[in-house]
Amino acid sequence: MKPCTRKICAASSLLALGLSSSQASAATYQVGPTRMYKELSAVADLLQPGDLVEVDGDATYQSVRFERSGTAAARITIRGIASGGKRPRIAGGTNTVEVAANHYVLENLEITGGSFRCFFHHGDDITVRGAVIHDCAKHGVLGADNDSGSLLLEYSEVYGCGGGTFDHQIYMATDENAHPGSVFRMQFCYVHDANGGNSVKSRAERNEIYYNWIEGALYHELELIGPDPAGGVSEGKAREDSDVVGNVLRKTNDFAVIRAGGDGTGQTFGRYRFVHNTILVKPDSGAVFRLFGGLDSVEMHNNLIFSPEGGSFKIRRQVEAAWASGSPAIAGSHNWLGQGAIDVPEQWQDTLGGASPMLVGPLDPHLTAASPLVNAGVPSPAGLPAHPFPSPLPAPLFHPPVAALLPIGSAEPRPSAGSPDIGAFELGDGSGGSMQGGAGGAPAGGSGGSGQSGAGGQAGGAGLAGAAGQPGGAGGAGGGEAGSGGAPAGAAGEGGAGEGGAGQAGSGGAGAGGAAGMAGASGAGAGEAGAGAGGGTSGTSGQGGQAAGGDASPGNEGGCGCRVAPVPRGPGAVWALVLVAAAWARRRGRVMSAP
Which of 115, 359, 564, 572 has a CA-to-CA distance to 1 between 20 and 30 Å? Predict the structure, then answer.
């Protein structure tokens, strides 16, 4: 038998592991004032699947358009490297950052000053993580009517955007012709102080609004409606559904809080689910739920609705609603209402209320031990049998931020014991670690693929997988990718209660990272930082692993065994990754086989 040469062995090993040549030859580009590439636009046309772009912080860059796609297995990552605590700042242009391609991850960027859109989304499988998007003359984040697919927006802050009636801080859509089944998921975000419009408006086919703090809109904090026929998508193309769980929605004026169904230009005839939200309103304000245009059904459970300043407030307005079945299809149970609530849906059951929910403070809606909301919720609330909500998030697993931007991966797990508390917060300290990868480690358990696992859109990763999570249906597993260029680890739905399939943590190439986010029932996150060529050792209780082959200091993502671009993309470049790929495959095998 002919001896196996190094090159042949490398090729056969990669083939056996199912790794593409583009993954094996991914390059790292460095952009900064002292680098070979001074602007992101200088590398945008060079990018290939799996590539990583590291952008130096404490510097300002010109607007950029990305139009070269990655793949689902090898996303292109644009990562800001903070300097002195400052992100890289991308400023100006008509569209400050435009992604007109598929399979991108953008992390740790400041985006500001666009004259039309600060972040313009018209690709598919896009993740924006750890961004600060602010002071945009019109839209802060805009999803196009055409070409836009799934988008995950997480751990990001948006403020000072929007204007008038038609420009919004976040305005999403998905193209139901080009990308059917797409999902807009927004989680762990802080949206506040709009210049006009709505805080979050979406025409997406499916919305998953989880664990956010949203306040300060001129109009609605959430507006969830159907596609605009002027954009080329028929209202009858698909039913648009929205799952809204574990958020704080705070009104700073007396306008309505949520509009669902339509806005006069498009309607959903969709299904809406509002569970475990804390909704703080002004006295004598508009309705909390403004039901408008075509709807299929609405259900509301375990929500806290309260006016800290007293006065009356309306729960529902439905005079403009048009129901698919011809009559209102509303369900609700165990909602807690402050005194002064009027127009409460007659379909609600076991509604609770009183003078005060006994929160920690007017801007801190954690519960005190004496709160009547403690253990007052219902687990797994039932909806309408004739209108089942597809792939709902069964129960909130995390707390939202409290009027602040959270560091990537630092969401506080929501304790789970006995009957759930009403509202977005559970009494207790959420002990048991977080999703943070730890000092020097890449964040573990990043949310997977913009909700790309399914018809239900629930992705693995971000601790949302497993028995306590929701794997979704068909449409591609969503093992998260918290690092760069590595093969995604942690298939959707793997793990037991609270045990999230974690995202790939390595930087450059097929990194050996990928934390198994071993949360247990309490949600502790074991971080494991990948290291390009060496892999990392796993940490425990939310502490990141040590990085092999690189500096483990904060900001270096657990060390980088990666190359500075440009690097040839030939077979000679793959050998160093073979051992990494094999180690990753062994780890992945263990994760996949966990009970």
Answer: 572
E strand residue ranges, 268-400? 270-275, 278-280, 289-301, 304-306, 313-314, 316-323, 330-333, 336-338, 341-342, 348-349, 352-354, 359-361, 364-367
Q: Based on C-alpha coordinates, what's the Rg of the chain?
A: 23
Token pair 């002990």 is at which residue? 431
Report how far Cα 168 is from the mean position of its chain's Cα atoms.
19
pLDDT for 231? 72
pLDDT digits (tens, 9 = 90+) for 196-239: 999 999 999 999 999 999 999 999 999 999 987 777 777 778 99
Q: Which two tokens stand for residue 423?
A: 């509202």
Say how far apart CA 306 and CA 316 lie, in whole Å. Answer: 14
| Mean of pLDDT values over 479-492 | 33
Model confidence over 532-589: pLDDT tens digits?
A: 333 333 333 333 333 333 333 333 322 332 333 333 333 333 333 333 334 333 333 3
Do residues 452 and 476 make contact, with C-beta atoms less than 8 angstroms apart?
A: yes
- Could you give the C-alpha distances from 160 to 130, 249, 413, in angstroms and in order? 17, 17, 29
**Where does the pLDDT of residue 406 fall: very low under 50, low under 70, confident under 90, or very high at 90 and above?**
very high
